[in-house]
Write a structure and sequence with these properties.
By secondary structure, the chain is an alpha+beta fold. It is 34% helix and 19% strand. It has a domain at 1-82 and 158-242 and 316-456: FAD/NAD(P)-binding domain (3-Layer(bba) Sandwich), CATH 3.50.50. It is globular, with a radius of gyration of 23 Å. The N and C termini lie far apart (57 Å).
């Protein structure tokens, strides 16, 4: 038997996480009686440097009824076809992790298995020659995917670069128009009920906001989940030692590239994210291997345009809260965990948390089964993304600095070690449960960083190699020709 419905949803903290939650709640939880209240203080800044996303953001925006053109204009957004990695393997290399698929499967066999067998033949080329998103990115061109499965554009996927602060403001306008209420104020205390749940947050000025379900979007502080509910943090810095970032915007440069760039440095890496009105830049680094002042010099010495603001420094620890949902508190974004933005997953984890919360939305009983399933699903999301990010470091051959020597030789999570071992044997990749990154993504990074299998799936030998090679050459030509027909990004 169902319990009493939740009537009061309180979101603590604004920023990207808070206003994504408020916009989604105002649209999907409004039954005419339920209220959505967001509490934030203008005196407390947000991190707000996340500007690159992955393709699921398009689905989130679409479910909110957001027009893509309006969204891009409001946020300074540009299309993103993937991420270019520079210097991650031996210091002088570069490859693209593209969105979408590689080539076309033949007779039910994964395309990369066909490529592995035939890659040394004349005219076959590299694996990214068969990814429409990679070919278009290298050409600086963009067009939306095609629904026609015969078109090379059918395998293209894309996401966005945008200004996270402008995105939060855009969502705030929509959320408030749909009934969400914003309360300005700094939280000074938390009241609990007899069950140990959060009953209310107390604000300066003797104000009190009561609620039934509380969504913690308070950033690294984790005011409700971490402090009020006492959920401990699980530290992953032994696998992901980068714990600092310096961010600085620069003037827009031409051409406007439709991809993010991640350039490896001596103790970390630098991001470059092109927006309509500026370029976002930052240096993610490990403080155990480089000082803050030197890290800032590295960043400023590798910019391709003049800075338009002073550099901003951030501190963080890679990891997550042991549970994302405790009692009647659910944490989203930095309040629940942090993984460095190497694969642009921060906003996706917010989106995934919202989606799973709505799929397991409780009543006033707050049953263990719903809470436990949410925590299991989110733990799997974090762990699979963690492994994918660690892969970039573990796959390096760099030994030129203590940082790269550390990440190259560190012990890996068993889940990642098994994935790498399976791929080294015959190029096999298996996707488990609700894992975010699909087979083409794992193949792109493994091959891009020089992990080449010793063999390939023996089933490939059942196909006529000459005919398959001819088909691959034609595919490659089709992708190249299609890229030249696509508009230049402006």
């Amino acid at each position: 038997m169902s319990g009493e419905s939740i009537g009061r949803v309180v979101i603590v903290g604004g920023g990207t996480a808070g206003w994504m939650a408020a916009a989604a709640a105002a649209r999907f939880l409004d039954d005419g009686q339920r209220t959505v209240t967001l509490v934030e203080s203008d005196a407390i800044g947000t991190v707000g440097v996340g500007e690159a996303t992955i393709p699921p953001i398009r689905g989130f925006n679409a479910r909110l009824g957001i027009d893509e053109g309006e969204f891009l204009r409001a946020t300074g957004g540009t299309p993103k076809l993937g991420i270019e990695f520079v210097g991650w393997t031996d210091g002088g290399d570069r490859y693209i992790h593209p969105f979408g698929t590689h080539g076309r499967d033949i007779e039910g066999l994964n395309f990369h298995q066909l490529w592995l067998k035939l890659r040394d033949r004349d005219g076959i080329g590299g694996i990214d020659d068969y990814a429409m998103s990679a070919v278009a990115a290298r050409a600086g061109r963009f067009a939306p995917p095609s629904p026609d499965p015969r078109s090379p554009l059918s395998g293209l996927e894309y996401a966005y670069h945008f200004d996270a602060g402008l995105y939060a403001a855009f969502l705030r306008h929509r959320a408030e128009a749909q009934g969400a209420k914003r309360v300005e104020g700094r939280i000074v205390g938390v009241d609990h009920d007899a069950r140990g749940h959060v009953a209310a947050v107390r604000l300066e000025g003797d104000r009190r906001i009561e609620g039934d379900l509380f969504i913690d979007c308070s950033g690294f502080r984790s005011l409700l989940l971490g402090e009020a509910m006492g959920v401990a943090f699980e530290d992953w810095s032994h696998w992901l030692p980068c714990d600092r970032a310096i961010a600085v915007p620069t003037a827009r440069t031409e051409p406007l590239l439709p991809y993010t760039r991640a350039t490896a440095h001596g103790a970390g890496w630098q991001w470059r994210i092109p927006l309509q009105h500026r370029t976002g830049n930052g240096h993610v680094y490990a403080s155990a291997f480089i000082g803050d002042e030197e890290a800032e010099r590295v960043l400023c010495g590798n910019l391709d345009a003049a800075p338009t603001a002073e550099p901003r420094r951030l501190r963080f620890t890679a990891g997550r809260r042991q549970r994302m949902w405790a009692g009647n508190v659910v944490a989203l974004g930095l309040a629940g965990g942090f993984l460095e933005p190497l694969e642009s997953t921060s906003i996706h984890l917010i989106q995934a948390g919202i989606s799973k919360l709505f799929g397991l939305f409780p009543d006033m009983r707050f049953t263990d089964i719903e809470r436990d399933e949410y925590n299991r699903l989110m733990a799997d999301q974090y762990a699979s993304i963690r492994d994918f990010i660690i892969l970039h470091y573990a796959a390096t051959r760099r030994d030129d600095t203590p940082f790269w020597n550390y990440v190259r030789t560190m012990a890996l999570p068993d889940t990642l070690a098994r994935k790498i071992a399976l791929f080294r044997e015959k190029g096999r990749i298996f996707r488990y449960d609700d894992e975010l990154f699909a087979i083409p993504s794992w193949v792109a990074v493994m091959v891009g960083q020089g992990i080449m299998p010793d063999g390939y799936d023996p089933v490939v030998d059942a196909l006529d190699a000459d005919k398959v090679a001819g088909a691959l050459r034609q595919m490659r030509a089709n992708y190249a020709a299609m890229a030249q027909q696509m508009p230049v990004v402006r």
